[in-house]
Amino acid sequence: MIMDKSRNRAEEVVSKDLIPGLPSELAMECLVRVPYQHQSAMRSVCRSWKSLLSDPSFTRERRRCGKAELLLCLVQPLPPPPNSATKAVGETETPLGVEVEKCKKRVSCTPRFGLSVYNATMDKWNRVAFPQLQIPLFCECVVVQDAGKILLIGGWDPETLQPVKDVYVLEGSGRRWRRGAPMKESRSFFACASVGSAQVYVAGGHDEQKNALRSAEVYDVEKDEWSTIPSMAEGRDECQGFSMGTELGFCVLSGYATESQGRFRTDGEVYEPRTKSWSRIENVWPFPDTSPRGRTVVVDTRGSSRLCCFTDRELQSQGQWEAKDNSEKWKMDVQVTQLPTSGSSVYVGSSRGEAVVMIGGRRENKGVMMKTTEKNVGKWSHVHDIPFGFSTLPFSHASIYV
């Protein structure tokens, strides 16, 4: 039934024949099979094609047919800029000469961040062109799949190194940026997650004076507006955010208070939109000397959430337990897995429901990507080498089907 609705919606958005002489269903079968890299050119063919490709139902139909491509979007430091331009997703290019000259004039050059995209289906790497030459440092990348949008939120201004309220929205076609409504409060190193079909929650982080924040807010992607929600019980800097499965809860994991920087909390807080309240969930982060950022993956199975925590130390205690809050409304299975290497720079994310680890600075400045599946937890397999220019470890990531 859901598949039929997706197909019907995709056909409703066009008023004329998609391909003259072909029934609409057959024409749709042809168009959904065109690779993502050609979709920009397809939009220029006619109004009906542009209307079709702009509607989220087109991506849903591609997924139904098994033709959707998975993009892994990474906010990561860029290597020193070359003399040539940096290639964007598709064929767009962004000149970097101006930025190089600005960088030369500085006494100490701050890192430059970019948005890289790995097409896991086609095994290709590209970088998205950004209208202001560089994106905010340490911004959060989050995807709203149903709306077909990629968001960059908050972070530091590249010039002043101060937290910002900025929001940038990239349509699923990957060709056009726009400014979204700014957050109500400047923040960086905060928890962020897409919850439900069109909402993004943020909480915690720190302000201009490096004070840990308790405040939280929610962004309605369709309305392009932010609303304040009740604050957390504790200030949490360098915390990690994720959604809690079908219950549509928003979990803020670990973090630390202003007066205890670098000592990460073992608990978390979960916000329930229905009651507009927070509850504390205990014993979910077992490493007080390590940030959870880049060390966790959340897997939702049968309506429950499993938090996978990754460490490069040998496991000395139990590797799995259940965490819950006082009301027992929120329960979570916690599982600790040892990484395939120690002493190296690593970042763990998720792709197609699997845990994927990026290991930087190896094999002649190339990175390597490895994965472990739910059925073979702890057994890592090599995916591929990451090409030079994309091997720096990301700050945040999200994935989207297109």
Automatic annotation (TrEMBL):
GO terms for biological process: negative regulation of cytokinin-activated signaling pathway; regulation of phenylpropanoid metabolic process. Residues 22-62 form the F-box domain. InterPro entries: F-box-like_dom_sf (IPR036047), F-box_dom (IPR001810), Kelch-typ_b-propeller (IPR015915), Kelch_1 (IPR006652), KMD1-4 (IPR044595). CDD domains: F-box_AtAFR-like. It comes from the Eukaryota. One of its GO terms (cellular component) is cytosol. This is LOW QUALITY PROTEIN: F-box/kelch-repeat protein At2g44130.
